[in-house]
Amino acid sequence: MKNTRQTNINIHRDAWVEINISNLENNIREIKKNVPKDIKLLGVVKADAYGHGSIMLAPTILASGIDMLGVASIDEGVDLRNAGITADILILGAVPVWAVESAVKNDLSIAIFSQEHIKACEQAFNRTGIKPKVHIKLDTGMNRIGVRSEQAVEFIKTVQTLDYIDLQGIFTHLAAAEELENANEQISKWNEVIDNVKTEGLLLHILNTAGTICYDVQNSNMRRVGIALYGLYPDFPEGVDFKRPNLKQLISLKGRIVNIHTAKDGEGVSYCHTYIANGDRKIATVPIGYADGIPRLLSNKIKGIVNGVEVPQVGNITMDQMMFDITDVKANIGDVVTLLDENHSIDEWAKIVNTINYELTCRLKVRLPRVYTR
Questions:
Q1: Nearest to 193 by CA among 161, 150, 160, 234
Q2: Which of 45, 228, 303, 311 has the largest CB neighbor count within 10 A?
């Protein structure tokens, strides 16, 4: 792990993301406090671990007691295999039928929910001699992918008769875990299916991060946790008694001041002059912009921290740079401006642009180098 001291960060640009491994370990400990010991945990590391770096984080996630990993595509799973990750990996999304053989060859479990998937599994088995590992995906109300619940029992029973498929689990996904009535409706559909099929030896999972923390479903022996791994909270339902975990944000965003100049009274800063200097203002430029994943809608609405002092971001955020008013702080070229850290949550940005926290963490992976710290 690279040293966190500013002088020792070995990167080639004056902007970077820091990922705190110790906070990851803390978050898994906190999550496990809400989970019975006999329940397995799947750690969701899709989208490059929500922008945090799946290859770097997977070993710590697994060493901290997570039983298996979940990704969105075969490519994500293959990347982990090529990095030496040997744990069970489930592809949560829809695998193209022509790619099932590739999943088999890379020892990746796949979600199936159609007759086309069944046929592709048979063809993959005939070509490789290896039974595809599958989890049957049910659609209990998400209306995205999966076997509809009213057809699920027949589909599951059919798959259980096939000697060329290694059925390992059944799962579904809550569309609105933060809404008790909606979640209970899906849980009811789930229970109706599971109560009518043989499930011995199968992994049964319905609960996402919010569900893992707030609900207990009897017909379930594994839970999937994603955003909480990275120290960010999902929305929680009202009227449910649960223990809120003490999560710590992994991600920090920092950049060095590359220029300091004075904007004179009445002069505009950046494109369209959305900020006009009121009196002479000392302006610092930091080489981070919307091409690095910072929403342009945050322009003139966020703050940075330089030498322990909050400073406002001013003017439109540009593709590669943004400016801060540092008139009231002693700062020099090369000083670090912190935009995000454990005490300055990305949730604040999400509220400003009316989105969710993990959309923004995913954006930050575009081209910013990542530095892993403890």
A1: 150
A2: 45
